Amino acid sequence: PDANTIAVIPGDGIGKEVVPEGVRVLDAAAGAFGFELAYREFDFASADYWTRTGTMLPGDWFETLRGFDAIFFGAVGWPQVVPDHVSLWGSLLQFRRGFDQYVNLRPTRLMPGVASPLAGRSPGEVDFWVVRENTEGEYSSIGGRIFEGTERETVMQETVMTRVGVDRVLRFAFELAARRPRRKLTSATKSNGISVTMPYWDERVAAMAQQYPQVDVDQFHIDILTANFVLHPDWFDVVVASNLFGDILSDLGPACAGTIGIAPSANINPERRFPSLFEPVHGSAPDIAGRGIANPIGQIWCAAMMLDHLGHDAAGAAVLAAIEQVLARGPEQAPLTPDLGGSGTTAELGAEIAEAV
Amino acid sequence: PDANTIAVIPGDGIGKEVVPEGVRVLDAAAGAFGFELAYREFDFASADYWTRTGTMLPGDWFETLRGFDAIFFGAVGWPQVVPDHVSLWGSLLQFRRGFDQYVNLRPTRLMPGVASPLAGRSPGEVDFWVVRENTEGEYSSIGGRIFEGTERETVMQETVMTRVGVDRVLRFAFELAARRPRRKLTSATKSNGISVTMPYWDERVAAMAQQYPQVDVDQFHIDILTANFVLHPDWFDVVVASNLFGDILSDLGPACAGTIGIAPSANINPERRFPSLFEPVHGSAPDIAGRGIANPIGQIWCAAMMLDHLGHDAAGAAVLAAIEQVLARGPEQAPLTPDLGGSGTTAELGAEIAEAV
Ligand SMILES: CC(C)[C@H](C(=O)O)[C@@H](O)C(=O)O
Ligand SMILES: CC(C)[C@H](C(=O)O)[C@@H](O)C(=O)O
Question: Taking the model in full, what pTM does it have?
Fold first, then answer.
């Protein structure tokens, strides 16, 4: 069979340090399970590229990337050089939209060996997915400023939801819930305060629920939902949310599971018309970049999700199991990075997990 | 001196059960500290009123209430009878806007005797205020729907921020931070994703910070900020946020402190041109309403905040101390309600706190 083609984009900061470890583990998995991956690395979507060219991406990024089977992405953002809203709208958010990656999928899972900030919870008890709408909603760039520089200055920004956009992400979430043992779906809303778009969201959830009688559906307003992530993380199975609410929940969830330092995320075009993009939840971490101590597990967990997406399910499961096994050994027995209480380096931890695969 | 005039609005569900306990404690404080409170109770802003009249408020609500020194509010919302976005926009959100209560102030405080869901945190370690913008931002009612009922259906809703609106809530937050020992202010943003309104918010924070060199300012994007409430609640002192972000943070904060069942909130018009409104963070709780077991502490803590606002600082402090003292006794020694692990009733717990005052 042909090799899967992977565009590798390390980006900024620790992205450049953790991506090679992700590739190392991918190689180990490909070797162990007998398939091939063909990589090509790109230096755009980074502050360096911005400094050289004044743009975040080359003009032909769309054609350059669209033929790949997947994009393996590190992190973008280096505010000392380029403001975040410029670097992110100029790269990551372009990919999400250009390649119609309308699902952002992120797990929250208590892992062995990772201390949870929540009292008395243990691995197995907390294990759910956040399904985030990834192309519209609160992240529209429609809006502007009037009466600039005066006391009457006013800014406005539009939240835009479409039936197509809402229904397709709901469908993905309902399908996912229907395949899981608990078959439970929770919708994040705020229809009591956000009085136009959120009642619409609720309406579409109710309509979709009709088509999935086997799925048990509930909903919470986003304020109390964040509270319930902390108080009752065991309540959740699949949580579906708008772009902004999903953004919040998919950082909060992993934090409840101990650290956002190890959480992965998949930006998926389910129809596979375009490449999907896999990136850790953490950012470029300017504070620790360049020191070789960044935790590569988020990136490696992305590798597992990418393998699943490419149809190499057994390999994906093996990578996740390898992560769990190394974490379970603890900082005495495994070269865990400082954020996990160890003194291992990025490369040592990556090698250990590759070995376990 | 003249009595302070208080409009009492129990509203729906457990609002009707906890408000009398708040009044009981207010009376105890007035007796102990020698001042007078004159109450008048209103039955509007409730599902009963809606059923009778088809509106949430009488046409003259503004004139009726504007002369009061404060509004002591229970909870509104009874979705079986009237959809939440109707009942809330028809009452609570009218008060907030009509009376220009542009600050929503909510404490997060670990209380003795309340188990925190966070591992290893104890009272004193977590004690901060969320200052929420309360009249504009994401809660605008500007927006609508096009191509209704078709595949092209699209809804839009505008977030509106004004210089006046942003600056005045920032000023309140900076003033509060400047008076606190740690003098620290954290701004909630999302300027990397919400690309028009949030960069504006950041700009105004930066401008205001110039005027308060003594205040130590930082900012986090809302996604990682929610994570940090869980991972590092001790980092925070005063957190200032837009309407939506403040809504989320002021539920999440109290959840991290153990329960939103006891958290109070103040909707303040700092210039005192209009009455301020004091309401617990919890809602009308249809699931436990009518059983006499609702926890009245949120409402009683509101009484403490209202006394502070009316200038009866010593009385306010005494009410807060009474709450802490009764909580510290635990469910064996005090009639705590079931949510706190006891078997006390709403009235028993209210009476106990009134006694302690
Ligand atoms: C009931 C709802 C409209 C309200 C809000 O979102 O403002 C509530 O959650 C609050 O925080 O007071
Ligand atoms: C960097 C930022 C624009 C991005 C987002 O908000 O989508 C990030 O927080 C994420 O969750 O992937």
Answer: 0.94
